[in-house]
Amino acid sequence: MTPIPTVGVLALQGDVREHLAALRAAGAEAVTVRRPQELAAVDGLVIPGGESTTMSKLAVAFGLLEPLRERVRAGMPVYGSCAGMIMLADKILDGRDDQETVGGIDMTVRRNAFGRQNESFEAAVEVAGIDGGPVEGVFIRAPWVESTGAGVETLATLGDGTVVAVRQGHLLATSFHPELTGDQRVHALFAEMVRGASAGSR
Questions:
Q1: Is 119 among the residues known to form the active site?
Q2: What is the distance between the alpha carbons of residues 199 and 56, in angstroms, rounded to a whole number?
Q3: Of 32, 66, 89, 175, which has the fewest Cβ atoms less than 10 A away?
Q4: Strands, E, within the chain: which ranges?
């Protein structure tokens, strides 16, 4: 029997509740993570959408930034949506000068690349590795990927070629918010990544 992975949602700021619901619907045990000891207890982590500069500051204030970096370096699967994508990027454009990231994905992302809140939009996005047709992508003050290193796999682009979903090994990131649509396929993909990593570590 395949073990049920325990996936944390970084609960400092952002759309935490929606990710918890989507993970549970995708067959994972989902818990909130606010402290280093809670981070140490999970098999994988979701970094939600929200405000990346605020999230970065709170991660430092809660003593989570370095433990997060250590878990990423150790191979813990992490999925970041929107602000979470920014948090997983090695480099940011249009961020604050003092903004820190967890890093791990060899990419450069541009903050708020799609414009302000009133320029939010939805688009059907074909995501490599997800069957059943396109997912509905909700883009809210979203970043996009400006460039990637050789080890990064592009999973989805918009019609103009803009990269909006990537994977590098155990790390997954999307510009959009699948947790707001009722479609759990992205979360199911991530839950499978967590199961695979957990099985490999046994």
A1: no
A2: 31
A3: 66
A4: 6-10, 29-33, 44-47, 78-81, 89-93, 105-110, 121-125, 135-139, 144-148, 153-157, 163-168, 171-174
- Of these residues, 19, 82, 170, 187, which one is catalytic? 82
Query: For residue 97, is pLDDT > 80?
Result: no
87 touches 102 (CB < 8 A): yes
Instruction: Choose the catalytic residue: 18, 19, 170, 177.
Output: 177
Q: Give the pTM.
A: 0.94
Q: Is the pLDDT of residue 118 over 70?
A: no
At 161, which amino acid appears?
A: G
Give yes or no: 177 in active site: yes
Mean pLDDT, all residues of the chain? 91
18 is an active site residue: no
